[in-house]
């Protein structure tokens, strides 16, 4: 075999292996959701069985999936919009008009992500209690915005850095105001980057479980609390939990799959220059 | 631009705010766990809603998540819940803090005298009842009668741990993946310590002496933990440090265990042929004892409490009264089958011939619960109440830390003596920080 062909073959095998490894838990979850509770915990695990929809029916009966899903969508999209709205001007200023302290500022922003969330649970809970934000969608939107803001600013900052300054300067020479500069030049030029940042933010919001479990009860509870309600300290629950998880991740999985091209383009944006 | 941003912001908050208006009126928010008995309660609750015109908002969470969520809300007086599901560990502690409303005024027709006294004691502080029991459990020994018969062994009514070890040796056949001694190994105050605590009691040990000094390096602890580690290694399933209640239950239900000491509330499932392959091969006896039978079986009661921060106390009381009444037990018996009736709370349940017929394990369960005296959990006197726990707020942390040390000994990372030494030191430190002796 030609060394190049062999190298390619090995890389393909490694690639498929890695992909299989990452996908396996999801595959197993979907498979388990079609088993009975006894089959789900059987040792050795069963690969062949008569599939049942019983778990999905039970999950549908016990909780209002649509209510949770709408909350998830409103909160993830709302928080992402708000974060992008704040982060675009911030990243624009940092990328094109850096001051002496811009780098420190960026690092400081990131450092807020280093503290475990539970450390501020009680202060946040008290703030939420006094502002009437517990169990409201807007409350979670604010928390998720603040939580993802450092990452969104960082990502947009690196994408904006890739945009040649000269283009913006040329615009300015032609009389564009800062607003037009951002809106008509910067945003279209870095659209793949913004799209992948927004996607990542939506995924992070969708999967967030600490704040959603602690700050909501029922009205604003998203899908993460829906999943949590199917776990139990006593009794068999894996199959039902798998069914609940499958329908909870389905929307974001489909969404991610549809926007795959955009995501990959965004993540490799500027890498070939 | 500013105006447009403002419009967008207000649009976002409008979308977020819709649905809030629905939560007005006599709607009660009830937090509970996803256990089978609670699922039945959720299914039957519309009957109470129809009768009273109130509505219930269910928040179902995993036990530990619920504990954290409810504690945060109650401690900060967040007022999110009108009814919460708590265990016998929390009831007296939260009652002492005035976080819960007393529930001894539900009316004469509630029949307080029918509640099993040990259960009522476990949920009271200073003689006041702070939560009403929904279902209660103790621990006992599940064993495979077919394997015992084959080996020519007869299980005594009150086995000792020495006997259990002897039987485990005879009944373990690793080539068939059959293990004699399936016990909890997963670290946690409610996991491995729920088994080890009562076992230490049976060996004559205690968590604290009367001056609140930790006793983890005393002979009974050493004997009990050495016994546990030795038998788990020799006759337990592989990877036991990952096994909690559910894992062992699955192992037992799929025929891999000859003996299992665990919650009486699991008996219904093991007897259910739909969930268990050993439904017709299982029998039960008391939890093992050793030098004493005091505190050898644990006690736990899932109960309904009403946070002091609720603004709908009357409606909440009406619901907890309904859900823990004799009439409710009968309702479950009629609607979901008598084997599913909430166990362990009321004497009348055990006097009912229909329940006795449907639940052949009823007598052993009743005796285990009646004998589980939380106020006398050990051979020697102690300053605390609780069998597998000590009803002080610090215990969650202490129990889990000690559980981790014992799991490390089980995994072979440290010796039993080292584990207990470390556990003793960390417990001494925690108790000193908490200001004991008080």
From TrEMBL, chain A:
<dbReference type="Pfam" id="PF00528">
    <property type="entry name" value="BPD_transp_1"/>
</dbReference>
<feature type="transmembrane region" description="Helical">
    <location>
        <begin position="181"/>
        <end position="204"/>
    </location>
</feature>
<keyword id="KW-0812">Transmembrane</keyword>
<keyword id="KW-0472">Membrane</keyword>
<feature type="transmembrane region" description="Helical">
    <location>
        <begin position="9"/>
        <end position="31"/>
    </location>
</feature>
<dbReference type="GO" id="GO:0055085">
    <property type="term" value="P:transmembrane transport"/>
</dbReference>
<keyword id="KW-1133">Transmembrane helix</keyword>
<feature type="transmembrane region" description="Helical">
    <location>
        <begin position="237"/>
        <end position="258"/>
    </location>
</feature>
<feature type="transmembrane region" description="Helical">
    <location>
        <begin position="105"/>
        <end position="126"/>
    </location>
</feature>
<feature type="transmembrane region" description="Helical">
    <location>
        <begin position="68"/>
        <end position="93"/>
    </location>
</feature>
<dbReference type="GO" id="GO:0005886">
    <property type="term" value="C:plasma membrane"/>
</dbReference>
<protein>
    <submittedName>
        <fullName>Carbohydrate ABC transporter permease</fullName>
    </submittedName>
</protein>
<keyword id="KW-1003">Cell membrane</keyword>
<dbReference type="InterPro" id="IPR000515">
    <property type="entry name" value="MetI-like"/>
</dbReference>
<feature type="domain" description="ABC transmembrane type-1">
    <location>
        <begin position="69"/>
        <end position="259"/>
    </location>
</feature>
<comment type="similarity">
    <text>Belongs to the binding-protein-dependent transport system permease family.</text>
</comment>
<keyword id="KW-0813">Transport</keyword>
<dbReference type="InterPro" id="IPR050901">
    <property type="entry name" value="BP-dep_ABC_trans_perm"/>
</dbReference>
<feature type="transmembrane region" description="Helical">
    <location>
        <begin position="138"/>
        <end position="160"/>
    </location>
</feature>
<dbReference type="InterPro" id="IPR035906">
    <property type="entry name" value="MetI-like_sf"/>
</dbReference>
Automatic annotation (TrEMBL), chain B:
<dbReference type="Pfam" id="PF01547">
    <property type="entry name" value="SBP_bac_1"/>
</dbReference>
<feature type="signal peptide">
    <location>
        <begin position="1"/>
        <end position="21"/>
    </location>
</feature>
<comment type="similarity">
    <text>Belongs to the bacterial solute-binding protein 1 family.</text>
</comment>
<dbReference type="GO" id="GO:0042597">
    <property type="term" value="C:periplasmic space"/>
</dbReference>
<keyword id="KW-0732">Signal</keyword>
<keyword id="KW-0574">Periplasm</keyword>
<protein>
    <submittedName>
        <fullName>Sugar ABC transporter substrate-binding protein</fullName>
    </submittedName>
</protein>
<dbReference type="InterPro" id="IPR006059">
    <property type="entry name" value="SBP"/>
</dbReference>
<dbReference type="InterPro" id="IPR050490">
    <property type="entry name" value="Bact_solute-bd_prot1"/>
</dbReference>
């Amino acid at each position: 075999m030609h060394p190049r062909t062999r190298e390619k073959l090995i890389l393909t095998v490694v690639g498929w292996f890695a992909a299989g490894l990452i996908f396996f838990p999801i595959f197993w979850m979907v498979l388990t959701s079609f088993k009975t509770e006894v089959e789900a915990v059987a040792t050795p695990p069963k690969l062949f069985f008569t599939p049942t929809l019983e778990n999905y029916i039970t999950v549908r009966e016990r909780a209002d999936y649509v209510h949770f899903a709408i909350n998830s969508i409103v909160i993830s999209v709302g928080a992402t919009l708000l974060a992008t709205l704040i982060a675009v001007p911030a990243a624009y200023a940092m990328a094109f008009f850096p001051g002496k302290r811009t780098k420190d500022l960026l690092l400081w922003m990131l450092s807020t992500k280093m503290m475990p969330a539970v450390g501020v649970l009680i202060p946040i809970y008290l703030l939420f209690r006094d502002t009437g934000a517990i169990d409201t969608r807007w409350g979670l939107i604010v928390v998720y915005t603040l939580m993802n803001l450092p990452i969104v600013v960082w990502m947009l900052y690196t994408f904006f850095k890739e945009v040649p300054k000269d283009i913006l300067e040329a615009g300015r020479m032609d009389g564009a105001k800062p607003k037009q500069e951002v809106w008509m030049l910067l945003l279209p030029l870095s659209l793949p980057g913004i799209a992948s940042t927004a996607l990542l933010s939506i995924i992070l919001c969708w999967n967030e479980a600490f704040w959603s479990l602690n700050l909501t009860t029922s009205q604003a509870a998203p899908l993460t609390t829906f999943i949590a309600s199917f776990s139990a300290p006593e009794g068999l629950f894996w199959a039902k939990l798998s069914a609940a998880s499958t329908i909870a991740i389905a929307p974001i999985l489909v969404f991610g799959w549809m926007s795959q091209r955009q995501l990959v383009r965004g993540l490799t944006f500027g890498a070939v220059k | 631009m500013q105006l447009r941003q403002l419009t967008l912001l207000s649009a976002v908050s409008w979308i977020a705010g819709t649905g809030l208006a629905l939560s007005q009126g006599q709607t009660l928010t009830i937090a509970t766990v996803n256990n089978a008995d609670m699922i039945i309660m959720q299914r039957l609750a519309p009957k109470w809603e129809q009768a009273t015109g109130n509505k219930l908002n269910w928040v179902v969470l995993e036990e530990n998540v619920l504990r954290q969520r409810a504690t945060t809300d109650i401690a900060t007086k967040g007022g999110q819940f009108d009814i919460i599901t708590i265990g016998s560990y929390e009831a007296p502690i939260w009652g002492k803090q005035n976080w819960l409303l007393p529930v001894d005024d539900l009316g004469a027709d509630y029949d307080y005298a029918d509640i099993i006294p040990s259960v009522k004691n476990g949920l009271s502080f200073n003689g006041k009842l702070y939560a009403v029991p929904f279902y209660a459990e103790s621990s006992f020994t599940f064993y495979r009668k077919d394997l015992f018969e084959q080996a020519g062994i007869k299980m005594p009514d009150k086995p000792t741990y020495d006997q259990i070890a002897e039987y485990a040796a005879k009944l373990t056949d690793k080539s068939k993946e059959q293990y004699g001694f399936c016990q909890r190994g997963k670290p946690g105050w409610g996991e491995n310590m729920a088994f080890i605590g009562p076992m230490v009691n049976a060996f004559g040990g205690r968590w604290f002496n009367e001056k609140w000094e930790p006793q983890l390096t005393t002979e009974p602890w050493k004997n009990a933990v050495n016994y546990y580690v030795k038998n788990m290694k020799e006759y337990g399933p592989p990877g036991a440090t990952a096994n909690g209640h559910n894992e062992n239950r699955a192992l037992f239900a799929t025929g891999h265990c000859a003996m299992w000491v665990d919650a009486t509330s699991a008996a219904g499932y093991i007897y259910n042929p739909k969930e268990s392959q050993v439904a017709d091969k299982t029998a039960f006896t008391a939890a093992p004892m050793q030098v004493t039978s005091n505190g050898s079986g644990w006690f736990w009661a899932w109960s309904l409490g009403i946070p002091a921060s609720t603004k709908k106390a009357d409606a909440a009381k009406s619901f907890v009264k309904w859900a823990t009444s004799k009439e409710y037990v009968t309702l479950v018996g009629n609607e979901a089958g008598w084997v599913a009736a909430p166990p362990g709370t009321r004497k009348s349940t055990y006097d009912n011939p229909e329940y006795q017929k449907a639940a052949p394990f009823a007598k052993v369960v009743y005796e285990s619960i009646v004998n589980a005296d939380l106020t006398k959990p050990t051979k020697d006197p102690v300053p605390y109440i609780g069998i597998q726990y000590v009803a002080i707020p610090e215990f969650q942390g202490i129990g889990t830390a000690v559980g981790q040390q014992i799991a490390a000994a089980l995994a072979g990372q440290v010796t039993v003596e080292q584990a207990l030494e470390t556990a003793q030191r960390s417990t001494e430190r925690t108790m000193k920080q908490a200001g004991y002796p008080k």
